[in-house]
Amino acid sequence: FFRHKIQKMSEPVLLPSSPTIIGQDEDIPSLLAEIKVAKQWEVSGVITKLKSHQGFRLIPEMYVEIMTTLTKVGQPSDALDWFHAAQRVDAEMDSVMYSCAISACKQAKNWRGAIDLVKDMQDSLIQADTNTYNAAIITCTNEGQWQRALQLMQDMETFGIPADTNTCNAGIHACEQGHQWQKALDLMLEMEAKGIVVNTITYNATISACAKGGQWQQALHLIEEMQEKGVQANANTFNAAISACEKSGQWQHALGLMEDMQIVGVLPNTSTYNAAISACEKGQQWQQAIQLLQDMQTAGVLCDTITYSVAISACEKAGQWQKAIQLIDEAQTNGVPTDAVAYSAAISACEKGGQWQRAVQLMDNMRQKGIPGDTITYNAAISACEKGGQWNKAIELMTQMQQYGVPANATTFSAAIGACEKGGQWQRALELMNEMEQKGIVADINTYNAAISACEKGLQWEWAMRIMENMKKKELSANAATYLAAVNACEKAGQWQRALALLEELKTCDIAPDKEMYCTAMSACARGQQWQRALQLIREMEEQGLALNKAAYNHAIIACEKGQQWQWALTLKNNMTKKGVACDTSTYSATMRACDKCGQWQWALVLMQQMQMEGLDPDLSTYNAAISACMKGRQWERALHLFDTLDEERIPPNTLTYAAAISACEKGGQWNKAIELM
């Protein structure tokens, strides 16, 4: 230990001519020795004794010894306190003392203090050296202050202070934090140009910077360069490169790097496998992810929470809910803690697999294990309930969120409103919309669409229109799904004028109506007996280049049937055949009903024959139309033949069937046949 004379400030300062220390009760070296061997709970007491000497002026070497010791035992604040004490007593300050103080700032995570010390050196005309700046740069880098770290490197160049490998490595690490991959590469090239040794740490930091910048090709090039220059790669090198591939979804290259590790004799660790599994997860290669997990276990590499979370997420993206649940159970069996991330992924997998019961069960398991669910977890569970049509469970989960203080967001409400929509709970959906507004949560387009769809299913077209008006007031642009839900609401309520008005409004929004939109509008026209408008929509679809499908033709034929336009109905049906659109039972039934209403019994029977020739089985509606047509054409024998065929086809007749058959007999003067039917 250094031994120096200590004098009070009131006395003249004399440098000692012998190693004798003049102090108070204990001398400083003995206190420092005691700190080094003291138990954790004993350190503070010894430090308090040491502080009693801060009123004395020491030489720099003693301050260095004190600060170094305190920093090493994890007391950087006390080390800095001694530095400031030296300043207060006007002790001689040198660059080593400043370096020690900056190192203490590094451990204390005090980047501002480190920068202030560098500035103080400049103001005090104390020459900072490379080590001083290195400590300050590393401090700033460690605390995410990458711009300040790079500025310090610039200051070094300005003041002619040479940078070394540690300086540049810290600077490259700062570039990595700031996602400045190009700057990291420039620094590395600058090192080589200045003859500064480039080592494994240099390459690792540069590859990591490329990884964060999504430059996976550059990362692979740097690994090749290391091999060419004989720089030894380690696990961190490969981990950084695999991470670069992972972030860009290059799972094949990630697996290739793992093979390269085996070739050069570098053992993969947990971080290696986690990055590779994550690459497979992003590449939607769930089987590869599971295989890597099994390889880890075979190799005896520790699987941690991240390992299982990423593997479960890979299963979630592939809809493998059974495997996701199996991994949750496996992690618990192996004593690996599972967090909300893992459970969220498993619950989301159940949601995609339509397993709402499993999703709710996983939520229960989380609560039992004391794992707090977050907004993402609850959203996944509520979404699972939505897809399962379990609106009451969705509301129950929202209630739990409030109880546990988990904040709901727009996604939460959208899923819950969607669940109410599927459950026909339009009032509850509107209540949730109102609750969102009260809580200041901005509803997005999906939320509004779900609410409008809920009103549509609840036959509440007026409310659907009000919600659309509210969207306009909030300057939220409706999309195709919004208009489709609103048109559906109007169609179900027979509001064909509103439906057509929405279709026209949609065109002004530069949104091209699709087939489904046109079909819904035509269905509204059919309900309103607006056959001309339905035919106009058919023409519009053709003009827009939309290929007419079975649904479009059927809706138009139904409109013609309701408007008693049998010729148009036949024309549309024949056009279907010409354009290769397959007719179905609904097509023939609607066309035959049109013929029936207009007394075209011959055409009705022809259509019946065509239908059977095409291998379609007539249903009760078809037979009713044919029997009714024969009745109107006074073809009682044909009507009774069709009636008897029903029995052969094992199709039970209904009231309309009997009424038509009896009426046919009555018109044909076959009162006895009519009585038999009655």
How would the blueprint of this fold be written?
Blueprint: E1 7-8, H1 28-37, H2 40-51, E2 56-57, H3 60-72, H4 76-88, H5 95-107, H6 111-123, H7 130-142, H8 146-158, H9 165-177, H10 181-193, H11 200-212, H12 216-229, H13 235-247, H14 251-264, H15 270-282, H16 286-299, H17 305-317, H18 321-333, H19 340-352, H20 356-368, H21 375-387, H22 391-403, H23 410-422, H24 426-438, H25 445-457, H26 461-473, H27 480-492, H28 496-508, H29 515-527, H30 531-543, H31 550-562, H32 566-578, H33 585-597, H34 601-613, H35 620-632, H36 636-648, H37 655-667, H38 671-677
Antiparallel strand pairs: 1-2
Helix pairs in contact: 1-2, 1-3, 3-4, 3-5, 4-5, 5-6, 5-7, 6-7, 7-8, 7-9, 8-9, 9-10, 9-11, 10-11, 11-12, 11-13, 12-13, 13-14, 13-15, 14-15, 15-16, 15-17, 16-17, 17-18, 17-19, 18-19, 19-20, 19-21, 20-21, 21-22, 21-23, 22-23, 23-24, 23-25, 24-25, 25-26, 25-27, 26-27, 27-28, 27-29, ...
In short:
72% of the residues lie in helices and 1% in strands. It has helices spanning 28-37, 40-51, 60-72, 76-88, 95-107, 111-123, 130-142, 146-158, 165-177, 181-193, 200-212, 216-229, 235-247, 251-264, 270-282, 286-299, 305-317, 321-333, 340-352, 356-368, 375-387, 391-403, 410-422, 426-438, 445-457, 461-473, 480-492, 496-508, 515-527, 531-543, 550-562, 566-578, 585-597, 601-613, 620-632, 636-648, 655-667, 671-677, and strands at residues 7-8, 56-57.
Outline the structure in words:
With 678 residues, the chain is an all-alpha fold. The protein contains 38 helices and two strands. Strands 1-2 form a two-stranded antiparallel sheet. Helix 23 (410-422) runs antiparallel to helix 24 (426-438). It is elongated. The termini are far apart. Mean pLDDT is 87; it is low at 1-25.
